[in-house]
Amino acid sequence: MPTASPAARTPSRARPPGLLRRGLPLRWRIAVAFAVVTVAITGLLALATWHLASDFLLAKREQGATMQATVDARLVEETLRDPHQDGSGDLLTGLAGGGDGAVALRRNGTWTTSGRRFDINALPEDMLALAGSGTPARQRIVAGGIPVLAIAIPLPDAVYVELAPLNGLDTTLRFLSGVLVAGVGVSGLLGLGLGGWAGRRALRPLTELRDAAARVAAGDLDARLPEQTDADLAPLATTFNRTAEDLQRRVRRDARFAGDVSHELRSPLTTLVNAVAVLSRRREELPPTARQAVDLLDADVHRFRQMVTDLLEISRDERLAPEDLEMCDVVDIVTHAVGTRAGVAVEVVGSPPKIEVDRRRLDRVVGDLLDNADHHAGGAVRVGVLAAADGVRIEVDDAGPGIPPEFREEVFERFARGANAGRREDVGGTGLGLALVARHVRAHHGRIHVEDSPAGGARIVVELPEDTR
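Predicted structure:
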């Protein structure tokens, strides 16, 4: 298997760890920014609404309870002034009612209560002291397990205390706070969704540029960006399309040059092959030195002929013509390509589907993979055909030492013969075999990569989709 000499490669600088730990994509950063701004605005509005509403409702409740307690205190005072009757107890029962309210009267150091039971010691001492000095006072406390507003009103030789329940107001404020918090949460989600939508629309030209660049990198030189009407995006689309057109013209010109050179070399190459064949037939008549020269010449001429054939193949249009496609059984193609190669087993896993491919190119793919294994990795030991999620998977395992991960992309480049490149004794390949394989796989919209084989060598994997158009 071809590998590159580590000594011949320039060590690449390690990427900073910060570049490897990438943050959120730009689209999501825009969405999060929208959500944060929305939550901040609605949160401020909710906080202001909460304070205004709670202060207003509490003030109205305290005002109403104070006015009611003042009226009730006057009734108690009039009752206490009547020397002929002492109906303060019945009056307190009537004032307390049947709800959560309660009243209390301190007279001559004795407390008289009515209404909801509560601990008289829960009343604040400072509030009672203030009322005892002749100044009305009020304070929010918890009495009998519920929040109440305690209102103390001074009377002649007495203090009247009325506890107005605040549990209804507390329930209302809790509901209001829940609504406001839910509103802030919903606004944050809406902001996130709006930001995601706006981010997608704003980044759509960049997405189109990324997709078009990926298509060009995959070999589709016809990829172009749509015309843009936006003043900021139109120059970008124009520049990209012009660059893609220049690249396409250059690639076609290079392919045409390689094809023309290969065609021009075929005639003299045929003459060389025939001349070497004549010399080889008379090899035994030559002296040892000339015999060795003939052997070297024969090997180089045959490798030269294979290189010319590969150059002709690689100079052809990479795109598949509709008339070249036919529905084929990949298992039959692989079995035919393996043929009678010794020591190579074809393993079929599952039921690989029939797919539409160019039979000639796929046969060339399997043959080149097997030849590559023979020349560089001690030969193929297994060829597997499996049913993949969206098509067919072909695996070729070899008996070589494997390919280091840092060289697994390089082996599919042209003239990448690894550490053997440029050596006189390397007569096994031209450095174009795997490049042609990758080219044919890309033409079928497939994928090729290298893995580790369970047998210890390398495994080259070809994945072909069912729809290759």
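Summary: The chain has three domains: 22-217, 234-312, 320-465.
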